[in-house]
Amino acid sequence: MPTGVALRDVREQLFDAAERILLRDGPSALTSRAVTMEAGCAKGVLHRHFDDFDAFLAEFVFDRIHRMDAHAAALRDLAGTGTVADNLTDALTALFGSVAVAIVPLLTFRDEVRARLRRAWPAGVPVLTEACTMIASYLAAERDLGRIAAEADIETLAPTLIGAGHLLFADRKGAPPEAGAVRKMVSTVLAGVVVQEPLF
User: Fold this and answer.
1) CATH at residue 26
2) HTH tetR-type domain spans which residues (predicted)?
3) Engineering a disulfide at 27: which of 15, 109, 119, 155 sits with its beta carbon 3.0 to 4.6 angstroms away?
4) Domain residues for 24?
C-alpha cells in the first residue's frame, strides 16, 4: 500500500498482522518490517502510530488481553448449564487455541516488552493471570449455584487448571490435544469439588 493512503482501523490491522505472524512463525519472526508487510502497508505506518516496536508489541498484548473480557462473560453465563467439566474443557480449548499461548514466549523473548507490561501489570504473565481470573469467576458462579463445593479453594483451582492446560497446549508446532485429554485433566483437577448432580 503506498505511503499516504489512509488505513481504516490501522492499529487493529497491525495487531491482526502481528497475531498471524506470531501464530505462524513464532516470536522471533516479529519485526516491524514483517508486521507492516503482513498488514500490507508502508514501513513507516507502524512508527507513526507507536513510539517504537516494543511499544507496539506491548499495546498488542494489552489489546489481546482485553479481548478476553468477552470470553470471560460468556463462560460465566454458562454457569448452571451443561456440566462444569465440559464448560471448562471448551473454555480452556478456546483459550489455548488462541493467541494466548503464543504471547507467553513473546514475553519471554522480548525483555523490553515484558518490562513495559510490568509497569501496568505488576505480577504474573498478563495473559495467564487474566485467564486465571476468568476461570476463578466461573468457578465462583458455579459454587454460588451449588455445583461446586462450598469449601472449594477456587484461588488454587483456577491457576492449577490454567497451568495444566498450558502444559497440554504449549507445543505450538504439535497437534493440539484431543478434547478427551483436556476433559480428563479438568476432571482430575476438580475431583472432589464438583457436586454430583441428581439423576432423574
Assistant:
1) 1.10.10.60
2) 8-68
3) 109
4) 10-49
What pTM does this model have? 0.76
175 and 89 share one domain: yes
- Residue in 12, 193, 184, 179 with CA at minimum distance from that of residue 96: 179
Q: Supply the DSSP string of 68-126, one letter for each residue.
A: HHHHHHHHHHTTTSS-HHHHHHHHHHHHHTTTHHHHHHHHHH-HHHHHHHHHH--SS-H
pLDDT per residue as tens digits for the range 22-55: 888 888 888 999 999 999 988 888 888 898 898 8
Each residue of 95-144: pLDDT tens digit?
887 776 677 777 777 777 777 777 766 555 667 778 888 999 999 999 99
pLDDT (tens digit per residue) in 160-181? 999 999 888 876 566 778 889 9
Whether residues 16 and 100 fall in one domain: no
Is 18 part of any domain?
yes
Q: Are residues 173 and 112 in the same domain?
A: yes
- In angstroms, rounded to a whole number, what is the distance separating the alpha carbons of residues 127 and 92? 13
